[in-house]
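Section 3.1: Structural characterization of target chains.
Under the original work plan, the team committed to producing a structural model for every single-chain target entering the pipeline before any wet-lab resources were allocated. The record below documents one such target. The sequence was received from the expression subgroup and is listed exactly as submitted; it comprises 131 residues.
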Amino acid sequence: DVTETEEKEAQAKQEEQIMKEQELSNLLHEKRYLKALGLAISLDRPHTVLMVVKAILKETDGRKHLEENIVRLRKDQKEAVLTFLVTWNTNSRNCHEAQAVVETLLKHEAPDSLLQYSGIKAAVESLLPYT
């Protein structure tokens, strides 16, 4: 009985994951970037978040759209993006996107607010050599 219940739970989780992946794909196709960013962050998918950022930057006035979307994220989502962009910044193919997000965070967040982010010290230390 217990094994059957566990298998059903695992299958339900897998189905939910597939549904979220499909929703994410649809959001990107519909260019609903804020929801796509939020979903990719909640799924803990740094590469997908990067793909969303790249898609935004490819748009006309991409920097402006990126700022609009990043500013509207919750604090915990911004912290997650900050963690992701530390890794993106170490790769020359992704450093421009990372720098665009860093610039947006620095421009729109007060220094005192940024200091409240979890992992900000480590993130800054990791970003400095590549910036």
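The chain is about 80% helix and 0% strand.
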